[in-house]
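Is this the right way to post structure tokens for a design question? Let me know if I should format differently. Anyway, here goes:
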């Protein structure tokens, strides 16, 4: 069953075209990787799909809801982990997750259960009642991951999920994302990290200059090329195979 549908999406900022005719679809049960260099249009696409900004044109839906016509309803029903997002500085993790749960119409008992579960899973139990101003960037990222899943949404949009996390927590988060998508949910991960995309995604869309240039299934035999080779061929061109580093992916 389709969870995300995008057809002819366009979005410009003045004279700069950020998304130029983007087209793709994501089904439940998929962990879809949105892979591309910085400036490819990944974050803009997520912001349109989650009702945060208006597109110039295009046909889009998330869980059969139009984010353009019903942005509040869309944001209520999905999970969102923005790149470099942070919790409100004047709240504790417990207060913030209670607020998110209330917005998502969860019963207080369920919010308490989810808060305890996520604090245990990601290891921030001792920080539940500490103001976010006193938390490290990694601890804040753990809270942001928890808020994206606290209401157990059917679709989750994640922009660079592993930022600021130590290696052990990164592995825990990757395993969770795989299992969550397998539970008849759709997980949409935007990243410039080829290794992460290849490790956890069921399918990857490679984007450049605001367009989807190719898609690749990672669950079927889809040719002999690695995802890195596909990326270099479709985005950077054949000469990029000889490039010693990928600075354009590391910002």
């Amino acid at each position: 069953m389709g969870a995300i549908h995008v057809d002819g999406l366009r979005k410009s900022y003045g004279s700069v075209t950020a998304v130029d005719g983007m087209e793709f679809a994501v089904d439940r049960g998929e962990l879809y990787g949105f892979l591309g260099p910085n400036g490819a249009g990944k974050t803009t696409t997520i912001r349109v799909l989650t009702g945060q900004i208006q597109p110039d044109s295009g046909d889009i839906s998330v869980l059969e809801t139009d984010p353009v016509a019903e942005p509040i309803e869309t944001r209520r029903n999905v999970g969102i982990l923005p790149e470099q997002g942070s919790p409100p500085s004047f709240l504790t993790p417990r207060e913030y997750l209670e607020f998110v749960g209330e917005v998502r119409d969860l019963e207080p008992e369920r919010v308490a259960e989810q808060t305890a579960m996520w604090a245990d899973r990601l290891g921030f139990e001792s920080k539940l009642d500490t103001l976010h101003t006193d938390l490290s960037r990694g601890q804040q990222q753990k809270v942001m991951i928890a808020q994206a899943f606290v209401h157990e949404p059917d679709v989750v949009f994640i922009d660079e999920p592993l930022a600021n996390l130590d290696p052990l927590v990164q592995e825990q988060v990757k395993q969770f994302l795989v299992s969550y998508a397998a539970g008849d949910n759709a997980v949409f991960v935007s990243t410039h990290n080829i290794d992460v995309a290849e490790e956890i995604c069921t399918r990857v869309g490679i984007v450049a200059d605001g367009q989807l240039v190719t898609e690749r299934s990672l669950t079927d035999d889809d040719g002999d090329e690695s995802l890195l080779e596909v990326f270099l061929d479709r985005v950077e061109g054949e000469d990029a195979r000889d490039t010693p580093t990928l600075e354009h992916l590391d910002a």
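Format looks fine. Someone answered above. Worth noting: The radius of gyration is 18 Å. The longest strand covers residues 2-13.
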